[in-house]
Structure formats: structure tokens, C-alpha cells
Specification:
This is Nitrate/nitrite transporter. It is a multi-pass membrane protein. Keywords: Cell membrane, Membrane, Transmembrane, Transmembrane helix, Transport. It is globular, with a radius of gyration of 20 Å. With about 400 residues, the chain is an all-alpha fold. The protein is built from 20 helices and no strands. Helix 8 runs antiparallel to helix 14, helix 13 packs parallel to helix 15 and helix 15 packs antiparallel against helix 17.
Length: about 400
């Protein structure tokens, strides 16, 4: 095989591991109602499940990024697949909140090792001009896992039940680990004797621009897909479960269409990336405003419009990783990517918890309760937009100064 063919094959297996990781990550999203009954928890308890998973994921981003820079992608991908398989097995057998939390925590731990490792493979295997598109393609294909965690998982839960469904998910993790061991070839990075570059990556304004980009664009769609979209559509908007599943799949499919377009535009017009980010934030806030101010339950066409707009959130967040690559050398791509990814998932955890706590405080699960709950997203959007503008200015000034002194 040619070097290019080998790089594509390795990338493909890495992306497959990411697809399975996304499936594990979002498997709770459509199982929320069943999880509440099986584990005997309310809205806050469901938030705790998702919060623990995402907090572990977010808190491990920087340490995992440092390990990826030191150990290479293959080792971290294999370990992540095995840990997620164990997490799904624990979740399949869980009958209370604590075992459920343990299972979701393991899933978050293994998931944290996956995306950063694949992004490192992309950054080191493909030319810089192709990197934004390849990152978008990675995110796009990864969303097949979100599709599998919607309608097929709903069908499996209703047909086979809780334990067989999540045991089947554990088997996917084992398959992923086997493929990674047999196909991926990733040389261990050379030891330079230098520190992993955490301080340098954090001090770089472009890294924090990427972090706030990821945070402000990802959080709404992540909260919707991972936990609250299905209950909102079924309990809050009165849709049949099958229709809700189709809408969740529509969100993912539209994101797969939007991803390559944003990837091309980000590569073609790198100095306009922040404008794309601000457009994504603004349209997301506008779509939610239209749904939340609608008296009573929103019509189906408006809910379709909402999920179409939310579809740009995932691709928009990928621009954050392009900032990490642009403003950092190859020796600290992992840790810079970890900072960016961690910031996005801290924002997602915040939204998920705020929605759950607000639902319990307001009481009920009708349109009015969800209206107050989803209104908690506005402060995070506002903060994210302000920080994107702030660090865009800092990054541009630093870049101009470097060019002037060259």
C-alpha cells in the first residue's frame, strides 16, 4: 500500500472507533425515560448520570492530551475502547443510581481518550490545507454513532429490553479494540525531555479562542442529543417516540451535510472562521427563541427548523480544533486539542445540569416547564460569544506582531 492509502486506512479505523464512542456517549439520550424508571430517579438524577459522564470526559481532556502526545494515538484508542465496553456492561446490569453512575463514568473515561487521539492522527497524517476538511469529515462520520443511538437503540430497548441492549453496546467496544490493535500503526512519539507544553498551549490565545468556540457552539446540540431532546420532544411537545427519534436522526443527518461545507469554508477562508462561529451561535439562539416563545406546544415544522439549525452546532464546534492546530506546533497538538474539547464539554455539562435542576424546581414536564429549563442556555451563549470576540482580537494582534518582527 502507498503511504497515502495506509494513512487513509488507519484514519478510517480510528474514525470507526470514534463512531462507536459517539454511540456509547449518546446511548443515554434516548434511554432517559427508561433509565428514570429502571434506576428510580427523577430529572435531577438523570442529570447526575449525564453530568458524571461528561465531567469525567471534560476533566480528562488535558491529561489525555498530554498522554497522547507522549504515548501516541493507538495505545490511547485501544484503552478507551476497552474502558467504554466495561462501562456499557456495568450500565447494562445497573439497577440503581450508583451503579448507573459508575457505568456512565467509565463510558466518559474511555470516550475522553478517543476523539483527541483520532484528531492527532489527522493532524500528523494529512497536509495542513486538507486538515479542516478531514477534521470535519471525522466529526461527520462520527455522527453515525449518534444515528445508531437514536431510532435503532429505541427499537432495541422496546424489543429486547434494557440488559440485552446495553450488553450489545459493550460488544461493540470489544470489536473496536480488536480492529485498532490489528490495523492501526502509530509510532510512539520521540521523547524530547521537554514538558508536555500545557502552559504554552494555555497561554496561546488561539487555543482559548478554540476552547470558547467549542463551548459556545456545541453545548445546545450536545444537551439536546445526549439527554434532554428526547424528553423535550415526547413529554414537553407531545410527539410520539418514533417521531422524536426521527427528529434526533434528522439533526445528525443535517449535521453530516453541514460539516463538509463548514470544513471547506474554514480551510478556504481561515480569517473568517470566527464569523462563522458567531453566525452559528446567533442562529441557534434565534431558533430556540422562536420555539420557547411559541404559545403552548410548538408546531412540527418549527421543531424541524430547530433541529436543522442545531445541526450546525457540531460542525461549528469543530472549528475550535482547527484553531488548536493553527496556533500550536505538532508537539502539543494533543494537549491543545484537550483544552479545546474540555471547554466544550464543561459548557455541555453546565447546560445539561441547569436544564435538569430547573425542571425539578419548576415541576412538571409540559411546555411551560421545558420553556424555563431551556432558557438557561442564554447566559452560556452570551458568555461564549463575548469570549470568542475577545480572544479573536488577541490572536490576531499576536499574529500581526509575529509577522512584523519576522
Amino acid at each position: 500500500m502507498t503511504p497515502r492509502s495506509t494513512a487513509i486506512l488507519i484514519w478510517a479505523v480510528g474514525v470507526l472507533a470514534y463512531v462507536i464512542a459517539v454511540f456509547h456517549r449518546q446511548s443515554l439520550g434516548v434511554a432517559g425515560i427508561e433509565a428514570a424508571a429502571r434506576l428510580d430517579v427523577g430529572a435531577t438524577g438523570l442529570s447526575v448520570l449525564a453530568m458524571c459522564q461528561l465531567l469525567v470526559y471534560a476533566s480528562m481532556q488535558v491529561p489525555v492530551g498530554m498522554l497522547v502526545d507522549r504515548l501516541g494515538s493507538k495505545r490511547m484508542l485501544v484503552l478507551g475502547a476497552v474502558v467504554m465496553a466495561c462501562g456499557e456492561l456495568v450500565f447494562a446490569l445497573a439497577e440503581g443510581l450508583l451503579p448507573g453512575v459508575a457505568g456512565r463514568t467509565l463510558i466518559g473515561c474511555g470516550d475522553a481518550m478517543t476523539f483527541i487521539s483520532v484528531i492527532r492522527l489527522v493532524g500528523l497524517s494529512f497536509p495542513a490545507r486538507h486538515n479542516p476538511l478531514m477534521v470535519q469529515l471525522t466529526g461527520l462520520i462520527g455522527q453515525l454513532g449518534a444515528i445508531a443511538s437514536a431510532v435503532p437503540l429505541i427499537h432495541s430497548l422496546h424489543t429486547y429490553g434494557w440488559t440485552p441492549t446495553f450488553m450489545g453496546a459493550a460488544v461493540l467496544g470489544v470489536v473496536s479494540a480488536f480492529l485498532l490493535v490489528t490495523v492501526v500503526r502509530d509510532a510512539r512519539p520521540e521523547r524530547t525531555g521537554e514538558s508536555p507544553g500545557l502552559k504554552a498551549a494555555w497561554a496561546e490565545p488561539g487555543t482559548r479562542l478554540g476552547m470558547w468556540t467549542h463551548a459556545a457552539t456545541q453545548c445546545s446540540a450536545a444537551a439536546f442529543l445526549m439527554l434532554w431532546g428526547y424528553p423535550f420532544l415526547v413529554q414537553g411537545q407531545g410527539l410520539p417516540p418514533s417521531t422524536a427519534g426521527v427528529l434526533l436522526s434528522t439533526l445528525t443527518l443535517c449535521g453530516m451535510v453541514c460539516g463538509p461545507l463548514l470544513g471547506y469554508l474554514a480551510g478556504r477562508f481561515p480569517f473568517h472562521r470566527s464569523r462563522m462561529v458567531l453566525v452559528v451561535i446567533g442562529t441557534t439562539a434565534g431558533a430556540w427563541t422562536a420555539v420557547l416563545v411559541w404559545p403552548g406546544r410548538a408546531p412540527l415544522w418549527l421543531l424541524v427548523a430547530l433541529v436543522v439549525v442545531l445541526a450546525a452546532n457540531g460542525p461549528g464546534s469543530m472549528i475550535g480544533f482547527d484553531y488548536a492546530r493553527t496556533f500550536n506546533p505538532a508537539t502539543r497538538i494533543g494537549v491543545a486539542t484537550g483544552i479545546v474539547n474540555g471547554g466544550g464539554f464543561v459548557a455541555s455539562v453546565s447546560v445539561i445540569v441547569l436544564i435538569g435542576v430547573t425542571l425539578d424546581l419548576v415541576g412538571g414536564s409540559g411546555p411551560e416547564a421545558f420553556r424555563w429549563a431551556f432558557a438557561t442556555q442564554y447566559p452560556i451563549w452570551a458568555l461564549g460569544a463575548v469570549q470568542v470576540i475577545r480572544y479573536r482580537g488577541k490572536a490576531r494582534r499576536l499574529l500581526s506582531a509575529a509577522r512584523a518582527s519576522a
